[in-house]
Specification:
25% helix, alpha+beta, nine-stranded mixed sheet
Length: 289
């Protein structure tokens, strides 16, 4: 299995939908298969391009310390701005102090408020809508007041002097033709390759109930064809030697690993059934508003 994304001018993202665990936290990813297929795709590589992938990769040292989105449906903004975009910057400048990184994250409030126009912060959004906004007009860094203030009590005007950091573009890593799940190689290898290149992956996942009970790792037992709540997160690593092969994700409450196993024991459902999309994001230098 494999997954990849990111560098100084490139930030890849993977999409999946799944519920937060532990408590009934908010989710908020609108998985639209039509919109996903309309997204520009990363060129398909030959199998030989994946033969030299390392057995494990982790971008966790470049990531901010996970925070909670509470009951709001803002997971798309957290996974794209707070997680993936911040990790991409950390990787580009080799920033590995997670406390420092956590004090220099990109604003999930600004992305959600600007791209969704939802005053309740409950409706959720399509991941590509957030990325389109991050491309033009661009994203901003989080201000200190945002960290300790309820989103409904923040006025977006506080960012009027903040510099913008527009991305150059984004791509999906694989396709979902006719809603077909595709093969393990078609889905897992591109994601591992992106992660091995220092590129975080935004995942939009169809989240079954078992995810809420997950601890160190998650292996779903539900039917992947059933529609559950959509949830966006960010993949930050993989390890072929743990749990039979696993990806590590950063969630808006904690870091969680979900298990991927052999074809005979259901990896197709874990990777192809629940995982639904993968995007890659490009970014440029900051510009003024």
């Amino acid at each position: 299995m494999k997954i990849i994304l990111q560098k100084f001018l490139i930030l890849p993202l993977l999409l999946c939908l799944m519920p937060l665990f532990g408590q009934n936290y908010g989710k908020g990813a609108d998985l639209d298969p039509v919109r996903y297929e309309q997204t520009d795709a990363k060129p398909v590589l030959h199998t030989r391009n994946y033969t030299a992938l390392p057995s494990s990769v982790s971008l966790k040292k470049y990531s901010p310390i996970p925070e909670s989105q509470g009951q709001y449906g803002t997971c798309v903004a957290w996974s794209t701005a707070f997680a993936a975009r911040t990790i991409s910057e950390s990787f580009a400048i080799n920033r590995t102090d997670r406390t420092v990184t956590s004090n220099s994250v990109f604003s999930p409030f600004f992305v959600y408020k600007s791209a969704s126009n939802d005053p309740t912060f409950s409706r959720g959004m399509v991941i590509s809508d957030a990325l389109d906004f991050m491309k033009d007009p661009g994203i901003v860094k989080r201000l200190p007041v945002e960290k300790n203030t309820d989103f409904k009590n923040i006025n977006i005007s506080i960012f009027h002097t903040s510099p913008r950091y527009p991305i150059a573009g984004y791509v999906r890593l694989f396709s979902n033709p006719r809603s077909s799940p595709g093969t393990i190689e078609e889905r897992v290898l591109p994601v591992k390759k992106s992660l091995s290149e220092g590129k975080p992956v935004i995942i939009g996942m169809n989240c079954p109930d078992s995810f809420q009970e997950a601890k160190d790792f998650w292996r779903p037992t539900e039917n992947p064809r059933t529609n559950y709540s959509g949830h966006a997160m960010c993949a930050v690593g993989y390890d072929d030697n743990k749990y039979g092969g696993a990806f590590e994700i950063t969630n808006t409450e904690a870091l969680l690993k979900f298990k991927t196993v052999g074809e005979q024991t259901g990896v197709t459902k874990v990777i192809s059934g629940y995982g639904t999309a993968i995007l890659q994001l490009l970014y440029t230098r900051p510009t003024k508003l």
